[in-house]
Each structure stands twice: as structure tokens, then as C-alpha cells.
Amino acid sequence: MDNEIRVVVADDQAGMRLILRKMIERAEGFTLCAEADSGDKVLALVEEYRPHVVFLDIEMPGMTGVECAKAIQDFDPRTIIIFATAHEGYMAQAFEMYAFDYMLKPFKMERVLKTLERIRQIILDRENTMQQIGSAMAAAVAKARSEGPGRIMLHHKEGVNFVSQADILLVQRENRSTVLYASGGRRFETSESLGDVEERLDPKTFFRCHKSYIINLNAIDSITPYGRWTYVVHLLGTEQDALITHEKYEELEKMFS
Asked: Residue 82: is it exposed, middle or buried by C-beta count within 10 angstroms (0-12/13-18/19+)?
């Protein structure tokens, strides 16, 4: 695991940023990278520091916290979003962004520390799971390659790539682009949308598990809890993993029952 779990805090009230700063300093394994007093500023900080966790107020100058969450997820959908706000009415909208938590001001230190400890354990468990993925898993990928569908053509600024669908393990949004992770550690980036790529993939093999992820069903190794309404899908043959929503998890269960 990284030495520290990086955090960015966004709130237009200096006093609230101070409170969160003191709480984060008390949490084991966390480092506060930067603070922002507006929605526009937090997006620049996310690109600069690539934090694991972002605390977002809802009502801020410029972009709202919900608008920021949407932009952050398009940049890196694995960023853990925690809404810290005085406004209860945005809760449903926040969880549509797959927020990890929604804390109403004023909140107690124990409440924040409990959430941070849960995040620390999730990240630690994820790192341990990745370390357990070994060369023996390549056999499952090889089997999928021999039985899978044909190839797709990916457009990018240098030209095109032809990629066997059976080699594709994961497709995700990343840095505002669509990225395919394939067997052998290969990575392909395209300007096409996730939906455009999904339309050309075999629906019997690929599953849209989240608005930012498509997974190869043959590459699923395990699924573990993540946030309140989200799980992590661990995949064979790659250190990358994906998120799956609660609704999509139930859909997946029916497919394999």
C-alpha cells in the first residue's frame, strides 16, 4: 500500500476546513494534501495530487459539490467521495454519484475517524488482494482468449489498434478518456466514449457494472464490499479492479444463479 492515503478537502468555510484538517491529522495513515474553498479549485487539486479521498461540501462558489463529484469520477472513478455538508436534502443526489459517505454538519470526531478507518481497511484489503493475483490466474485468461469473440478496432490520435475481445479484461473511464486493460499488462486508450465501446463488445461476455466500468465476465475473481452501495470487482490477470453498484451486483447474481 502507498505510505499514506492522500486526502483533499473542499469547503468554502475556513473553520470547517480547520476542523476536518484536525480530524484527518488524528487518523492513522492519512495525509491532507491540499484544501480548496471553491468547486473549481478542487478539480485542479484532484488532477495535481490524485487523492484517494475527497471531502466535498455541497454548496460552494462556482461548481457545487455534486457537480465536482461528477467531474472527479470522470477523471478517476476510484476516488472516494465523502460529502460533508449542512444540507440534508442532497443525500439522494449524492449517492447517485456513488458517494462513500454523507456526513451532516456538525459531525463528531468519532464519526469522521470511523469513516476514515473503514476507508483505510478497504484500501489495505484491496492491496492485499492484488498481491495474491499470481501467474496461475493466466490459465483462466488463456481459456477466455481461446473461446471468446472476435476483435474490435479502437480509434486514437495516433491511429487505430485492433484488440481481441477475449483479451480485454476491463474497460473504464480514466483521465476523461476511455481505457481498455488487456491480458499481458497491455493498456489501450481511446477518445471514444464508454458507450461507443460497449456497443461493439459481445454482451454475453462483457457487463456494464457501473457507469464508469465494463468488465469481462470470464475474468471475475472475487467481489468485496466498498462503499454503502458499491462493491469492488477483482479481476484475473490484472492488478486493475472495477466498481459495481448494488443494483448491478444483484443483476450479476441472477446471471450466475
From this structure: buried
